[in-house]
Amino acid sequence: MTWSLKIARIAGINVYLHWTFLILLAWIFISSLNAGQNTTEAFTGVAFVVALFACVVLHEFGHALTARRYGIQTQRITLLPIGGLAMLEKMPEKPRQELAVALAGPAVNVVIAIVLFIYIKASGLSLPTSQLEDPSQITLGKYFLPNLLFVNVLLFAFNLIPAFPMDGGRVLRALLSMKYDRATATNIAARIGQFLAIGFVFFGFMYDFWLIFIGLFIYLGASGEASYETQRSLLSRLTVRDVLMHQYTPLHAWETIGRAVEILLDGQEKEFIVTEDNQIIGTISRDDIIKGLQALGKEERIKRIVNQDWIRLSTDMELNEAYEQMSRKKLSICPVYDEYGELVGILNQENILEAVMVESAREGSMMKPRAVAD
Ligand SMILES: [Zn+2]
């Protein structure tokens, strides 16, 4: 992501900062000065936001490190002005594991809040009042830690709202999955989330503008999660064999980039597998070809630009598994092998999208989902 700045690598996970976050800090600093504060006080306001986001990072690490216990890696953690985002490869599908991963984040905020509470009590500071002090009024010492305690309690409560994309939505889904299948559980959880979202918007109009914003955020999150899960359950009924393409044009490693451009312009194919001595050595996408053309010219061999980080798919693999593996490696094309190890075709992202469209059309016309016979 070009808009993000890598700020740390902790426990093997890269932490990125979205550049808009810096605008938030600058805005707090400038508005504090405008409110008549001196530079030290303005810096304290900025330090508070940084401390708050440090808590958010710890929250995200709660998710990431718990997921790691179940063999799920986290690609990155990104800090946005609206919060943190841990990009897990996927959520675990076993309800108990999903429950643990979802709860781990808010649990971190509870721990932070307890530690702060003990420290504040021990050092004789006063506890926060129910209303968060205006960030521009935070002075070092007196309100800093009590307010940090207060926002951790808020983070805990907010994240446990039982609606996607909040952690509470996943907790709810995990609990429902113990009784229903995952697609049904997701749908019920998404409905509850949308119902809550409408409630937020409604109360937002009466009381507080921010509730409208939160309501819309939840509504979109719930819809997104439901359609993602629908797609997954559609794909899980198909195998790679059902959608693979038998006809494709392999490129040879010694052909030129210019030749690849010709083939690209000549037909429908946008990504290719690359062979050398009758062996696949990698794949190449339209973007690779264009970038190679710009950087190296059309006379250069394809071998120079081939993506060697490719994977084999097998014909009997479930399509959602193939899709996940391809997304994880950002591959748009993969060679497919049968049970005897023979290359039988290729699978690309477009095949998968078409399969989703066909399956959902079929489902719409038949009302009841059914397993696709091979
Ligand atoms: Zn969370």
Detailed description of the structure:
This protein is of the alpha/beta class and 374 residues long. It folds into three domains: 1-160, no CATH class; 162-235, no CATH class; 240-366, CBS-domain (Roll). Helices cover 55% and strands 14% of the residues. It is built from twelve helices and ten strands. The chain has helices spanning 19-34, 39-69, 95-122, 144-159, 167-177, 182-206, 209-235, 240-243, 257-266, 286-296, 319-328, 349-366; strands at residues 4-10, 13-18, 74-80, 83-88, 251-252, 271-276, 279-285, 313-314, 333-337, 343-348. The strands form three sheets. The protein has a four-stranded mixed β-sheet with strand order 1-2-3-4. Helix 2 (39-69) packs parallel to helix 4 and helix 5 (167-177) packs antiparallel against helix 6. The chain starts with a strand and ends in an 8-residue tail after the last helix. Mean pLDDT is 82; it is low at 365-374. Bound molecules: zinc ion (ZN). The site of zinc ion has 5 residues, from helix 2.
> How many domains, as an integer?
3
In DSSP terms, counting alpha (H) and pi (I) runs of 4 or more, how many helices? 12
**Which structural class is indicated by helix and strand composition?**
alpha/beta
Strand order of the largest sheet: 1-2-3-4
Percentage beta strand: 5-15%
Global geometry: globular
